[in-house]
Design goal:
Largest sheet: 8 strands, parallel, barrel
Number of helices: 9
Radius of gyration: 16 Å
Distance between the termini: 6 Å
CATH class: Alpha Beta
CATH superfamily: Aldolase class I
Structural class: alpha/beta
Shape: globular
Number of domains: 1
Number of strands: 8
Helix content: 25-40%
CATH topology: TIM Barrel
Strand order of the largest sheet: 1-2-3-4-5-6-7-8
Strand content: 15-25%
């Protein structure tokens, strides 16, 4: 499928909500999607299954799309979690193989999207580079480019991706993508070439969405929305009823 048809706006996903207050801040500030961690051992934003279900329901009630962010690699378990919690996307944030994506696509309803993270190292390497085509064929709807630090950390590291490292990978992508990795309002101009790529769909932010006390902040998220052209700090219309189909066109 072609990746050249843009969505009506750039998506803003804020990641790592742990409280209803985080959901309220994300919705009030103009986010579109909220990442909810489950199956991320030792993760600072980890939720148990009941907590995940509660925050997913709160997100849906505000018009936000809840996204399961996980290191889990059992398709049956992930499908059961998605059914129980009502998440709209499953984001595979570890090094899950294409076979897991294929099994998960078969197990999930058609309107639940699969996001596969591609880990871009600080030296420009990408472990998944040889597998990008296989991930596409297996049923990935959306890629997410994020930083893998030199000490092996992945996910919400706050470490920025060098723009030239991102643009070097873009010709290999066969699906639309979100950009993550230390994004702020201030560094938006550095990614001009990335933002204008036909496959660009939006950004995924954790650190820059937070206040000094650690929760999501309305001014912080609204500033991201303005800088990255996701809005003006006011709520957008809800996402399509079938986000997987919309994103994969």
């Amino acid at each position: 499928m072609s990746t050249t048809r843009p969505l009506s706006r750039t998506l803003l996903k804020v990641c790592g909500a742990t409280t209803p207050q985080d959901i309220e801040a994300a919705a009030a500030a103009g986010a579109d999607c909220v990442g909810l961690w489950h199956g991320v051992p030792g993760g600072p934003s980890e939720l148990d299954r009941n907590g995940l279900a509660a925050l997913a329901a709160a997100a849906r009630s505000t018009g936000l799309l809840p996204v399961l962010v996980t290191f889990l690699s059992d398709a049956g378990e992930l499908a059961a979690i998605a059914a129980h919690t009502g998440v709209g996307w499953v984001q595979l944030h570890a090094y899950q193989p294409p076979a897991l994506v294929r099994a998960l696509r078969e197990a999930l309803p058609a309107d639940v999207g699969i996001v596969k993270v591609l880990h871009v190292q600080e030296n420009g390497g990408c472990v998944e580079r040889p597998l990008i085509g296989a991930y596409d064929r297996a049923g990935t709807d959306l890629f997410l480019l994020d930083t893998a630090t030199g000490d092996g950390r992945i996910g919400s590291t706050g470490a920025a991706l060098a723009p030239d490292r991102v643009t070097a990978l873009l010709p290999r992508l066969t699906r639309p993508f979100l950009l993550a990795g230390g994004l702020t309002p201030a560094n938006r101009p550095a990614y001009e070439d990335v933002v204008h790529h036909p496959g660009f769909r939006g950004i995924d932010v954790d650190t820059a969405a937070r206040t000094t006390t650690g929760g999501f902040g309305v001014p912080q998220i609204a500033a991201l929305a303005r800088a990255w052209r996701t809005g003006t700090g006011t709520r957008h219309a809800p996402l399509p009823d079938h986000p997987r189909l919309e994103l994969s066109r």
